[in-house]
Design brief:
heterodimer, A: 177 residues, alpha+beta, 40% helix, elongated, B: 117 residues, 2 domains, 3-stranded antiparallel sheet, 18% strand
Chain lengths: 177, 117
């Protein structure tokens, strides 16, 4: 060392440099992580809500009897292709809330599909009501629906097997407007 | 600062301490964001509702007395492979009196034996 003066200057300089680099790194990494966090939590809540609503609708009053009450409301709606009743009940379940100021209703919307195995054992998909989907941030929830053998299936299901009980898949795309 | 003037050392020291505390606070904020992301991601990835749904459907077959109908097995298998990319299979063993349920979507595998259905 030529001269041992200015040691505090050196320490100060090193400390300030480290501080600036660490702060810059933290600021950059924090801002990039924050954005996807919200999206994931909202997706999770939507998915939970949609699955719960479909499970409620797919619960019959009683099992194993031969009356119409042994089929869930969802089974009856799908069997009759009653997509208006489905939309009304589903939206009233998922939008039902007490903590939104003003209307007291949430702004969730949906688009639904039904997939089934037709009489040539191909998978056929028909729409089951809802609003057109314009690339909002949506989640998909699904539910198996049991359909009893029906000698004259609804005209809305082309090629549906008429002689046998079957399970069809109801897929609902759910988003907040 | 050094040599020229020895005043205001308290302020300089507090400045250092506060900036170091700020670094640690930023670290905590960073971690909390990650925790929220990974938690909700793992909830989304785990197919809890799908398994509950399949199980409910198969138990409903049992209550309806249609457990032996082979086309129902193929409904579940074919539609779920095509639409959801998951394998669903079940078998009813009449002599041993149990239902075997299998579900696999690539990340989650689930097997269950329901005795005396």
């Amino acid at each position: 060392m030529v001269n041992d003066a200015g040691q505090i200057y050196t320490i100060e300089g090193i400390a300030a440099g480290v501080l600036m680099i660490v702060t810059a790194y933290l600021v950059v990494s924090t801002t990039t992580v924050l954005t996807p966090q919200d999206v994931h939590i909202i997706d999770m809540q939507l998915q939970q809500l949609g699955n719960d609503a479909l499970a409620m609708m797919d619960t019959p009053d009683q099992y194993g009897s031969t009356t119409i009450r042994s089929y869930s409301p969802l089974t009856v709606m799908v069997m009759d292709y009653n997509h208006n009743a489905f939309g009304y009940q589903f939206l009233s379940y998922v939008n039902n809330t007490t903590n939104i100021a003003g209307t007291g209703y949430d702004r969730l919307n949906y688009y639904a599909n039904i997939s089934y195995l037709n009489d040539t054992f191909q998978i056929q998909t028909v729409p089951f009501g809802g609003q057109p989907y314009y690339r909002e941030n949506a989640v998909k929830v699904t539910r198996w629906v049991y359909l009893p053998a029906n000698s004259s299936p609804n005209i809305a299901y082309p090629g549906m097997r008429s002689d046998t009980n079957q399970s069809v898949l109801l897929e609902v795309l759910l988003w907040r407007e | 600062m050094a040599r020229m003037n020895e005043d205001a050392q308290w302020i300089v020291m507090l400045g250092f301490i506060i900036s170091i505390i700020l670094v640690f606070l930023a670290l905590i904020v960073n971690q909390s964001a990650l925790v929220g992301k990974t938690t909700s991601e793992s909830v989304l990835d785990f197919s809890k509702s799908e398994i509950q749904d399949v199980r409910a459907e198969i138990i409903e077959y049992n209550w309806n007395g249609t457990l032996n109908q082979p086309s129902l097995q193929h409904d579940l298998l074919n539609i779920s492979l095509e639409q959801k990319g998951a394998i669903i299979w079940y078998e009813f063993n009449q002599t041993e009196d149990y239902i075997f349920i299998h579900y696999n979507d690539g990340t989650t595998e689930y097997n269950e034996m329901v005795r005396n259905p």
